[in-house]
Design brief:
The protein has helices at residues 3-27, 53-57, 69-72, 75-86, 95-101, 106-114, 129-138, 206-225, 248-252, 298-322, 324-329, 333-346; strands spanning 119-124, 150-157, 160-168, 190-198, 231-236, 256-260, 264-267, 278-281, 286-290. It has 350 residues and is an alpha+beta fold. The chain is globular.
Length: 350
């Protein structure tokens, strides 16, 4: 039984009327009061929701996701969800009873509930432990989600979690934006896909999932932050992907490669949440973009890429000269970069 999907169905049914009321209050400028359901009192202690309600408060289940009309309005599906999640007794002739007894139409109902290729994009807390663990596998050394506005998702196919995704604020300044005629510091209408990680196989292609994600993010970002994204960015480390084509799934989903980053990073010293940022070496990544603007001609993009690559080479030479001891001891570029970052931000290499 696909419990994640059943929880989603039950959640949508529970919230359907209240979400409509919230929308009406928003439309006339009234406060939302207590907002979406997040405690037992809101349900009158209904035992059907005992396994679901605590997950609202923890941010595990999405309290503002768009409804799934066919499933939410299907009384048999809802009845089965209530039985499975709430542990309620089921009448012998009911849909839930047939499933419990494994007889009559029960097999067909179970087949409907499983639907092994069903793709579900589920809103979750950006700090959901399993998502944070996936983020740390995705970016070794990551301390967790980035600061600022952000949204997280769990990607489920059938009864299996395929992976996780996260969207947040874009880079403060990105030279590659010039390749679509934007100012490097123009972040208006832009979100950054800071994480897209599929850890299990399935029938849905990564490019298809990216398109589904963007439709969901557009809705959720507007609901939470008041505006809908128009420009979508992501940055990919060419050395960290298994595919021969860097960003292949993004390209199939409609993204276009703009060029490399400078490979430089500006970070505050360890333990400081404010104050000036220090320039440290990073990793050159490729910037991908999807949105309404066309790219500049190919020759301009090639010239830009060469300029950024030369800047990175020049900066790395400067750091090698500045820290000759580290350079001699750590010939590997990545190890050298990490040691320099530690030296600058923490006061000494690991």
């Amino acid at each position: 039984m696909d419990q994640l999907w059943l929880e989603h169905i039950l959640q949508q049914s529970l919230l359907k009327d209240e979400l409509a009321a919230v929308s009406r209050r928003d439309a006339v400028g009234l406060p939302r009061a207590s907002g979406p359901v997040n405690d037992h009192a809101a349900t009158g202690g209904d035992p059907r929701y005992s396994s679901v309600i605590p997950k609202y408060a923890a941010g595990v289940l999405d309290a503002v996701s768009p409804p799934a009309p066919k499933d939410v309005n299907d009384p048999e599906v809802l009845e089965v969800a209530q039985m499975v999640l709430g542990g309620l007794p089921a009448g012998a002739g009911s849909a839930a009873g047939r499933v419990a007894a494994g007889s009559g139409g029960g097999a067909q109902m179970m087949l409907r509930l499983r639907e092994p290729d069903r793709l579900s994009i589920e809103r979750v807390s950006t700090w959901l432990p399993e998502k944070v663990a996936a983020l740390k596998r995705h970016y070794t050394g990551s301390a967790g989600p980035p600061p600022g506005k952000k949204i997280g998702y769990r990607i489920v196919e059938g009864d299996q979690v395929r992976g996780y995704a996260g969207y947040g604020e874009p880079s403060f300044k990105l030279g590659a934006r010039r390749m679509v005629g934007r100012d490097p510091a123009d972040r208006s209408g832009t979100v950054n896909n800071y994480m897209f990680r599929l850890e299990n196989d399935g029938t849905h292609k990564a490019s298809e999932i990216l398109r589904e994600l963007e439709a969901r993010v557009a809705h959720d970002w507007r609901a939470q932050y008041g505006w809908e994204p128009q420009h979508w960015e992501t940055m990919i480390d060419p050395d960290a992907v298994m595919s021969d084509v860097v960003g292949g799934s993004y390209r199939k989903a409609g993204y276009r490669r703009l060029g490399p980053t400078s490979g430089l990073s500006f970070r505050r010293p360890t333990g400081r949440g404010s104050g000036p940022r220090l320039e440290v070496p990073g990793t050159q990544k490729q910037v991908f973009y999807r949105g309404p603007f066309d790219r500049v001609p190919r020759q301009q993009r090639d010239d830009f890429a060469e300029m950024m690559n030369e800047l990175y080479r020049s900066k790395m030479e400067q750091w090698h000269k500045r820290y000759p001891g580290l350079s001699a001891a750590l010939p590997d570029d990545e190890a050298f970069r990490k040691a320099v970052v530690d030296l600058i931000l923490k006061g000494g290499p690991r």
